[in-house]
Amino acid sequence: MFMLSLTSLFTLKNHEASAISSTISISQVYGGGGNSGAVYQNDFVELFNASTSPVNITGWSIQYAAATSASWHSTTLSGVINAGDYYLVQLYSGGAIGLTLPTPDAIGTTNMSATEGKVALVNNSTILSSACPSSISIIDLVGYGTTADCYEGAGVAPAPSNTESDIRASNGCIDTDNNSSDFTKGTPAPRNSSSIPNLCSSTGISPILHNSEINMWSNQNKFFIDFTNTQVVSAIIEIHNLLGQLLSIEKYNKNSIYIKEISNDENAYIIVTVVNEDKVIIKRMFLQGR
């Protein structure tokens, strides 16, 4: 599934790159925990299930090595990641600087570099044994920073910092097996198994949601919800940020189209609780700012 540096080109796992991850991937990496100016007190690795089915990761591991090192450090994982859910692995803290992470799903003590290193998701707990390992047990790998000697695709993910993490595109849905294009650096936004799910469509973008009661879609930085020609009596519309914090809440009546705009640099979720004559339907949709 992952591409190594050119010197290891012929020891690749035999998987084709695809526009959407079919299983669990590394969706965010942050190594500045507790350092000077840090946003969060702990390093962390975030996982995401882009598939349509739950995945049991009991016995799997997150493994880290310094940028050019062959020495890997492991944190064992357990539990099930449901479709569209995240999984937060809390790691080392450099001090009491920054925010406390959301409740982690796994805890380790690995001290990650803030700017360069290698992180592997492995489907067992066997410690990797070379600087750029080739193993069918490696589910995903991220090499970040300019000196990392092992990575997927044409190049490394960008160098993060004490104030930035590397974040996978489309909130985890995009996986083209190319670290340099799949990741961008930005403000850390750790998500755990209690965060709002992000269900991916076949194109790797969070989906338009439809049902017999309402029609929801997005265009650039606007939500649209069509209540016309439905049996909807009323609806409660909530907008949340990536941390699950409520940004706004409104009540909307039937026989109309609701439009909500978010700022160009904001990512948000919309949660619609629809009250019909005989039932309640809850729908969620993600909207990514431009």
What would you say this structure looks like, in words?
45% of the residues are buried. Helix content is 1%, strand content 35%. The strands form 5 sheets. It has a 6-stranded mixed β-sheet. A 4-stranded antiparallel β-sheet has the order 5-4-9-10, with no helix packed on it. The chain has a 4-stranded antiparallel β-sheet with strand order 16-15-18-19, with no helix packed on it. The protein has 1 helix and 19 strands. The protein has one helix at 179-182, and strands spanning 24-30, 44-49, 55-56, 61-65, 73-76, 80-81, 86-90, 106-107, 117-122, 138-144, 165-168, 183-186, 215-219, 222-226, 234-240, 246-253, 257-261, 267-275, 280-288. Mean pLDDT is 79; it is low at 1-21 and 202-212.
